[in-house]
Amino acid sequence: MKILTLSNLYPPDILGGYELNCRQAVDALRARGHAVEVLAAKPRMLVADEPHIHRWFDLTDEWSRAKRGDDPFVRRIRLAESRLVNAFNVRVLTRALEAFAPEAVYVHNVVGLGGLGLIACLQYLGVPWVWHLEDHVPRELCSTEDGVDPRLAAQFSAAVRGTFTVVSRRVLNACQVEGLVLNGRVELLPGWIAGPRPAPRTRFYRGGVLRVMSAGRVCRAKGAHIILKAVALARDAGYDAIRVDAYGAIADPSIPLMIHELRLEDRIRLMGPRPQEELLRLYGDYDMFVFPTHHGEPFGLVPLEAASRGCVPVITADCGVSEWLVHGVHCLKAERTPEEFASAFLRVLRGEVALEPLARRAGEAAWADFHIDVHLPRIEGQLRDAALRGRAGHRRGTPAEAYRLARMAEQLTQALIQESLCA
Amino acid sequence: VKVLVLSNLYPPDVIGGYEVACGQVVDGLLARGHDVRVLTAAPRQPIADDAPHVRRHFRLADEWNENVMGPFPVQHLLTHAHSRFIDAHNVYVLVRELEAFAPDVVYLGNLVGVGGLGLVGCLHHLSVPWAWQLGDCTPARLCSSRTGVIPALAGEYNRKVRGHYIAVSDGVRRETEGLGVRLEGQVALIPYWITGPRPPARADFYRPGHGPLRIISAGSVNRDKGVEVLIEAAHRLLGMGVDRFLVDVYGKVGDPSLVEMVHALGLDRHVTFQGPRPHRELMEIYGRYDVFAFPTNEREPFGLVPLEAASRGCVPVITRRCGVAEWMVHGVHCLKAERSADSFAGALRDVALGETCLEPLARRASEAAWSDFHLDHVLPRIEGVLWEASARPRVGAGSPSEAYRLARLAEPLAEGLIQEMTADDVRDGRIQVGEVCV
After folding, report:
1. Of the candidates B407, B293, B400, the residue with the CA atom closest to the CA atom of residue B345
2. Which of A222, A246, B146, B280 has the fewest beta carbons closer than 10 A?
């Protein structure tokens, strides 16, 4: 099949796991003989060329405060460029569609690209697509700083129809709020791991110092403060044999201060960010992976990666990945409080929970149920079905019209923002 | 020679003659066997069947579009900054193209709209040789804010930027340097050009008493181009008792008050607005007129249309000190006049009454146009400049990733400074929402 993949960024330039999973899917599809081209935004640093990756989109970096701006007007314009429409990117897309003539388009994260305009362009041209949702991207695309815009949500629901694969029920629920509906075929498909299976783990926790790790941005949203307090509570309960290494960039400067205030310098180390390949090796050196992320976490791939290396996840009970793992079978789940996470540590430290069977089952489940090779036939089937439906459908508009409409929409959006702020 | 061409827009999407000329040079260089690639902005309208050597990958900050500029000072200034100072996306596109194409030299056209200063800064950082075709005071424009040239930017430009310039008139060079932006390096004066095959020589010429004097003007119909001077001159001609003439004004009416002026002066029988016509049609139309009136403003960088008219034996009557006037001799190839109704009326009266004989002027003007101002004649000189520039040693070159990183630093810095300054200006009442800023 000829597949065109759309993503805001693409490895090695990434925002998070969404882009990494995109690459893994692309590589797997290519390995199975599909012709896959990737259309992504210019990276934030120069990266080596790969012939099938075209970094032609213009990125509106709404994640950078410097780019987002302080002026309310600038913020709204930037947000519109990022989410609603960017005519330059619509032109890039139409040119790629003309040049490559894909049978289906595989859409990933399109925030930052004027994603709504890209989806509208595909709809307008009758190009079949499958949209892999590892986050509530449709909701974001239909939102301003004030939340979901009901008119945009209504228009999205009325006009957009295709195939959605969603990594968790909570993402699906978050996408279907305030009048927003995902129309068409909607399937749950978890995030995945990739790569060859390493030799099975042989060393498991049997008392002594419990080696715990976390990975990801070091901030309160990911629960860094909960880890700190949980370790302090365990210590105060008389269980001192716990060491936590936190890998990732420090996104909240209050966290290092908190380590100092809680006198945890000898128990918690901030290790800084590491490349994914290194992290995958490091998981094997730890007994537990602690993941007290926020309730809205769409999925959370890192606990799954840790599980694949026999590092037992302790996760927030109601985050995305917890829908796919069973407490006491593949992981430990805890309410998102320091007390609950401390309790999980204590049960392991006291020997009330044996990590070895958990680690074995979690590792087995990760490779058997969550590897990309397991999911790939489903992804292929969805893309093939979409392509078949697209072939039967009508091409409604021309690329030139789509670009002209995008330019009109872009200027209209700016005019409306101006009017709303002038009023 | 491998030539990478940078231009804000590229035919068929053009703002004016600057981009048309760029397209003609590219076609000429390709025809002479050079390996040429064009990097330009995404067009404002869809374009079908682009040539493979044209890559429309730049992003345009459309500062000519009122909708894009909008009423908010901060929007004006941010678009302006992306248009003239820095656009990191475009620096990325340039860096990748330089790596992929590895040109011997870069030929720069109009860089307003694509963050031109950043592009020139990138070429400077990478020590890539370039030659810049100046159809206007583009370096000064790139160093300007809404209140004129920014001394700090001009100072930095003067300190760092050195290369080869091709100015279409000495007026362009003088005006640029008069604004505080020096053209360091080599400056070649090479005029604009006409293109295409030479038509049969003109056979009919104006003779007093044998029909009216047929006067044409073409271009934007506004006061900047001097259409009000021409209308007023027509009124003076009538006052002098010269009645047998007609003035046809071709072009889009940008200033409706000019139409009212014709009515108010009772010139409806003599002055007619003919609307815009395609370039090809205009080239045929010139041969039906005796005189091409061009009372443009004195800072007109060149002004190609009088030369095109001259190539068809239609004698130019032009502002004495505009760009094209540097290249034509009064009384030999054209008539020059001060930019006033009296002066233009006097020149036209002399023609109408036969005191100035048009035929020898028309023959000489046409001959000069085809022998000295045809692209075939001019192109070897441009090639010479490109060749000379390409030989410049590439010493002390920085890396592409540094250039891109610097651009990514500069862009948010410029945006941040603008937002800070605008917030102060709006708060203190120095700028109002709706005020035209640039």
Report:
1. B293
2. B280
Strand partners, A245: A213, A269
A300: nearest Cα among A235, A222, A367: A222
Q: What is the pLDDT of residues A298-331, one digit of tens each?
A: 999 999 999 999 999 999 999 999 999 999 999 9
Residue A114, phi-psi category: left (phi > 0), alpha (psi -120 to 50), beta (remainder): left
Name the pTM for this structure: 0.87
> In the sheet where A242-247 sits, what is the strand order?
A268-272, A242-247, A210-215, A288-291, A312-316, A332-334
- In this predicted model, what pLDDT tens digit does every residue of B6-15 receive, in sequence order? 999 999 999 8
CB-based contact (8 Å) between B427 and chain A? no
Measured over all CA atoms, what is the biggest interatomic distance in chain B, rounded to whole angstroms? Answer: 72
B236: which DSSP letter?
H
B142 Rama class: left (phi>0) / alpha (psi -120 to 50) / beta:
alpha
pLDDT along chain B (438 residues), means of 10: 97 90 96 97 91 96 84 84 96 97 98 98 97 97 90 95 97 96 97 95 93 95 95 97 96 94 97 94 96 96 95 97 95 96 97 96 97 96 97 90 95 88 73 50
For residues B287 and A350, what is the distance between their CA atoms, to the nearest angstrom?
A: 102
CB-based contact, A423 to chain B, within 8 Å: no
Query: Distance between CA A24 and CA A38 in Å, rounded?
Result: 12
DSSP tally for chain B: helices H, then strands E:
16, 15
Contact assessment for residue B135 and residue B18, using Cβ atoms and an 8 Å cutoff: yes
pLDDT surpassing 80 at residue A68: no
Cα angle B35, B36, B40; round to 5: 160
d(CA A159, CA A237): 58
Rounded CA gap, B358 and B35, in Å?
Answer: 44
In sequence order, the 6+-apart residues with CB closer than 8 A to the CB of A262 are A228, A229, A231, A232
Interface test with B, best of A58, A70, A76, A420 (most B CBs within 10 A): A58
- Check if B42 contacts A (Cβ < 8 Å): yes
Residue from the list B46, B68, B95 with its beta carbon closest to the beta carbon of A411: B68
What is the 8-class DSSP label of residue B317? E
| Close Cβ partners of A47 (under 8 Å, ≥ 6 residues apart) | A12, A13, A55
B415 in A contact zone (CB under 8 Å):
yes
How far is residue B125's CA from residue B117's CA, in Å, rounded to a whole number?
A: 12
B400 contact partners, CB below 8 Å, separation of at least 6: A46, B95, B98, B99, B126
